[in-house]
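Q: I'm writing up a methods section and want to include an example of the input and output format. Could you take the sequence below and give the corresponding predicted structure tokens, formatted cleanly so I can copy it straight into the document?
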Amino acid sequence: MSRGTEEISHEQRYLDLLYARLDTLRARAEGQLSGVLRSGAGTQQARTERDNLATAGAGRVAQLDAAEEGLCFGRLDLTGGERHYVGRIGILDDDGDFEPLLLDWRAPAARPFYVATSAAPQGVRRRRSIRTRFRTVVGVDDDVLDLDAAAEGDTSGLVGEGALLAALSAGRTGRMRDVVETIQAEQDHAIRSELRGMLVVQGGPGTGKTAVALHRAAYLLYTYRERLAKRGVLIVGPNPTFLRYVSHVLPALGETSAVLATVGEMFPGVRASRADAPEVAEIKGRAAMADLVGGAVRARQRVPEDVLEVVYEGVKYRLDRETCVAARELGRKANRRPNLGRKAFAEHIIDSLAGQVVDRLNDDPHRQETLAMVNLIAAELGEDPSEMADGVFLGNADREQVAAALTDEPSVQEALDWLWPQLTPQRMLAELLATPELLREAVEEASGEDDGPLLTDAEIDLLLRTPGGWSAADIPLLDEAAELLGDSDTAEAAARAEAERRARIAYAQGALEVAEGSRSIDLEDPREEIVTAVDLVSAEMLAERFEERDERSVAERAMADRTWTFGHVIVDEAQELSPMAWRLLMRRCPARSMTLVGDVAQTGDPALSLVPEALEPPKGCCPTTAPVGLSLT
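A: Here is the clean output for your methods example:
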């Protein structure tokens, strides 16, 4: 038997051991998941715990299934005599002393497999690459890094860049392959860069930059799991087809929890299904469109040229321009987001109308005679004349009742909706793009006096369209509108949730006080310290235990919440994103912990950078972060 055949046989025996262990772990995980799904759950807490266990169990099964292909691909022989195998996931020998049978490729102990060299062996005597097909070892290649210490081993095979070039020149299949078996030092540097800050991975087609970015996602989720478990990692791709390709890579790297999306999927409740002409998409993607959307929002806060008439109970009341301007200023000062400032605006308008109604009802032509009569009667009865007058004429309390009645009056609501409408992003943008007058008003509102119009007449005509459906270029505009308008429903829901939380804490505090006050003292020994529930549990802890849990996964919650912020964002084909799309992504990651992947050569302008202008501080959005540049060419 040749030396190569003998080594392959040796590695095959170890690989059989690993797969046997993998089968055991998978059967155990499937059994536990099946048991959880069959278990009953009588209370809300029990159902929540069951669903959490089911989610975790399903994730573990998926992770073990994904590790089936290429489970083990490397071995490290250290100068001290130790030997470590490297693979897609970590496997422990829990039948013995829990020694690692297989190191997860992301673990710090596995890093020498990718970065050790003969100049800097990092304690590695020999590095072996193990090639497998399904569950069979088909070849091994050894790199002897410490020639003085190595007494045996075949030094044939590819070393250094050769392994990377072999991987990159391999035939392509219908699915993007991972390069976890052939990561080289410069790729490992990119993959294992710190979470904070911005990393730019630049390279031409076929350089493996996208695969490196996906390995980075898996590495970050492994290394910073506690920090990223709550916020998640977002991977943004250029189209759904691309995301289907990469969706097969992450599970093979041991991760199933990243969120994959295109920009067209980043606004909850909206999916981009409409196609824009390239020239229209280019206009919508300009940074100036942020000013246009802001102008459109401001232009919808109208005031009449002279007066606005409101009919109430058959009587016409007048809202003059001065009153409406004052109300608008109050609303804007109350909250810069119109949907949240509208309440203050509406209160001022309704109070003005209520004052007019009360004045009309108090407008008695015989007022002086009436007051004289009231004073005379009060003197005879020994009463306060001012109090008796309040019963004759409408006062502040009556004015409040009139205001409450006006609030529900359809004619008043119609006037408020014209002056300051409660807008959703969808309604605002749909009306803007379908109404020439609104679009021209927005352009006029957003254009500076010295800069000229924001859009030309020809560009305005290009943007106008019939309602129905949204394009990918519309999604950043919707997000911009939502950011500017504000969500009154979200604010009210947050206030309700906080009130409910405080009520639960108060109830829990009362329960603890009852428990403390009701304990028996007959058996207490004054020399002993008795520990009670009050000593172990606070009201906040007790209230939290009975709080209804959100049972959705991080990905489900993130994609349903426009205001969700991710722990890290990875952008592939970054050079294709418009400035407006970048503004959307900046809101999803205010900390700017990002990995940008792309090829500036595809833009047609080599002077451009993958780091867009949107990363400069947009109007109060995010702090500036210095990017780290890395070129894979």
